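Bench log, entry 3. Co-assembly request; chain sequences pasted below exactly as received.
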Amino acid sequence: MIPGKGWVRRIEVEKPSLRNNTADVERLEKSLMHEFGDGPVRIPLTVVQTLPSNLRSWEFKTKAVMFRDKASWIVIDLLAPDSEKAVLGAAIDIGTTRIEMALIHLETGVEAGKIGFDNPQALIGPDVLARIHYSSRPGGLEELNRLVIKEINQNLSFLCQTCGYEKEDIYLVTAAGNTAMTHLFMGVESFDIIKEPYIPGINIPDTMPGRDLGLDIHEHALVYLFPNIGSYFGGDLIAGILFSDLDKKEEPCLMVDVGTNAEIVVGSKDFLIACAGAAGPALEGGVSKMGMTAKPGVIDRVWVDPESREILFHTIEDQKPVGICGSGMIDLAAALFVSGRIDIRGKFSESACGKNLIEKEGIKTFILVDETLSGTGEPITLSQVDLNSLTSSKAAMYTILEVIVKNTAGLEFTDLKKFYVAGTFGSFINPVSAISIGMLPDIPVSVFEVLGNSSMGGAKLLLTSPDAFDRILNIRQSITYIELNVNQEFMNMFSGAKFYPHTDASRFPSVRVP
Amino acid sequence: MIPGKGWVRRIEVEKPSLRNNTADVERLEKSLMHEFGDGPVRIPLTVVQTLPSNLRSWEFKTKAVMFRDKASWIVIDLLAPDSEKAVLGAAIDIGTTRIEMALIHLETGVEAGKIGFDNPQALIGPDVLARIHYSSRPGGLEELNRLVIKEINQNLSFLCQTCGYEKEDIYLVTAAGNTAMTHLFMGVESFDIIKEPYIPGINIPDTMPGRDLGLDIHEHALVYLFPNIGSYFGGDLIAGILFSDLDKKEEPCLMVDVGTNAEIVVGSKDFLIACAGAAGPALEGGVSKMGMTAKPGVIDRVWVDPESREILFHTIEDQKPVGICGSGMIDLAAALFVSGRIDIRGKFSESACGKNLIEKEGIKTFILVDETLSGTGEPITLSQVDLNSLTSSKAAMYTILEVIVKNTAGLEFTDLKKFYVAGTFGSFINPVSAISIGMLPDIPVSVFEVLGNSSMGGAKLLLTSPDAFDRILNIRQSITYIELNVNQEFMNMFSGAKFYPHTDASRFPSVRVP
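Structure output for the full assembly:
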């Protein structure tokens, strides 16, 4: 952040005199507008009530903790000019599966601590659909809302305690989630999100008092939720675009968030085009779902030994293997393909696989780790059914990328100056593997850049950069959201993309088809 | 009010479709902006939470209860389109001595009931000065604030009960008071109001949630307090200007509010000039203070019998006389003067008064009612000291009127198309008497118009007319407030005005000096 240019600033208020005998609030507003920019200012009554004596005892200097809504600047609190009290903001990524939170010092931008925990709504339903269905039962919405708010309160309290702060030190919360998670966080009826014509209750929530949401933080704390584009394009992606600076790029870049769905944005300072993979049925329950989540013993990297042509792997914390994660799965498919163990149609080759390919309940199954080496006592395998699912997912991903970059934006993949991969799962994908199987386009590896949790990144950015407030609304207004029409043309493109790496191998010059 | 053009309106929201699949809140905002005017809209979270199901069960029609703040339109609540629930507003005149309240149906403008009661802060101090001093003691401000809020809550509750409504039916409160009363109502530190350079804590309070003020009404009710110009020119006068339409007049008019002080505004649609009598020390503890407040037996009218030249009077409810009220005092002075019982210097004439003039503790005292006819057993009298005080007051009033109309606005009294007399005390003044003693200028009696409680009138107007919101801020911004400089010129003018009716009798051609 730019020092002294955040939401907390030291300001000086003009002293009153017979020639300048306007009210204390008016002189305060004038100083705030001079410092932050013109516009109406809202000040909580409790701050107004003690303003006269505070200004005088502070010699007409103060440290102002500010935020904004759509229409006004808002004073959250005024502190003594030399106050050393911690002034914290909390950034929250409200994931469907996992919630991440970070505490940030609003004056310096320094991170004070962070914490992650499972979204407690998972007890009620693992995915958005199940939770929204549950929310329409009597009391269901309230229960889902209470679960997430309670868990966030407990974790904020725990995090503050751990880092040596009070929960009342949190003045500002910025949070991003998909449209459903945003609705459930606010306790807004969300049933129409999943029914044609797919109507969210709200797209652009305005800044809200934390107490209205039941957050147990500073009594005047404000909460900002990143806006949605629609039912299938949430605030987490707007936060990601903000974090990637896509809206400021001179030349076109692309960001893909690979989570439960894949959401893609391509653009620059001149345009932003987005689509969400939920519209592509092949991606539903996509790649990431097949794999396990990261824990000790999970296979996270797979490669072919250049000499022996054997398939080697690495497990987390070098434990005995217990399973394979999503990114490991992509590595595995790539290793199987480049070693000729699967053919360009994505089918296991009996000759190349040899004794590692068995038939199990009538389905060809590749044994990656036999039971003697496995940490579970069971072999770790990949069946043709699993592989077909992965093939569909990678084909859907490539097709959607092609539709948005080529057919919609009218660009070539080589025009992209940066290809950002966001999302927890996306962070671990090896681009070389993903290119090898034709999941990602064949562009130089240096163009790919891992963003990590970009939703969290965007939420943190807003805590430290007042400029981000307008950028968010501008991003929201300027995005063209493409509904993926799964028409005949799409299905033709999809069919080609189901080959390894593609029916048109010339698209993947760097991939040596065995 | 213009039917259907108040704060409560029935609106229709566009139904969603695949072609118009914006969020429910967005389509609601669009309808509200179409109905009320462009601008940001704020909607309470609880309204958003149930908006999707409500809109659908109401077939996308609703009755919207709205208000505004400086920056936004605010939804207070949404009701079913055919709801017959009462939607009430409360107008409050927060007088230093007395508080008046009225309940108004926001849909029709019809008054549902009204009530008046003494300001309970009078227990702590009779006037502004005493209360502000008390407010600076530890806990003093909170106590004063609690007293007035508690009494208002009790009276609102009682009024609602009496009229057959619930206190939750009150969605909007508009209140006007002087600067000190406004501060104490809000619980804002007000000590600097009375200390040079006379700085109010706040001049233009923004619309506030009723619950922040401790008002026990609808949970999302909003409260609007009329803005002050400064420490000595309060929201009650802005409300009065609004009520008198001074800001819309084609030709100059004048409004004077005669209460504890006298505040004067002269102007039209082109200009507004104001001054407050508190700056003129002669008016402090002025006319109205000398008299009793109205109650049975109080002398409220005095006149000279044209034949017998005797002084006659009327008492409230025709009871035996017990005292004399402020307006009766002006009548009495006029009767004494036109009958020659006091001379042009304002001194009792022994010859004209005869046996009715006695000497009491060395001071000449006129006996209006002797002990045999008095309801108290004591004679009702007017001493030379009382009369001198009245003379100073009437002279100060005339001088201030002259300064503001002639010296400041550059007008003649005859240029005034209307001379509005506001305030409870002002309502009872007989203009003929006031002209006779040289308190009010000698203009046709038809030019004078009694406004009554214009502060309450303005507060009621805002409850029924959304246009009034902008007018109030425009009035506030366009007023030129004149600090009365009590300089040599003023003192010379004041000396002339202490004569009956004036040293320059040609200013009062209609007054026959005996």
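Chain B has three domains: 8-79, 88-225, 245-514. Confidence is low (pLDDT under 50) at residues 278-288 of chain B.
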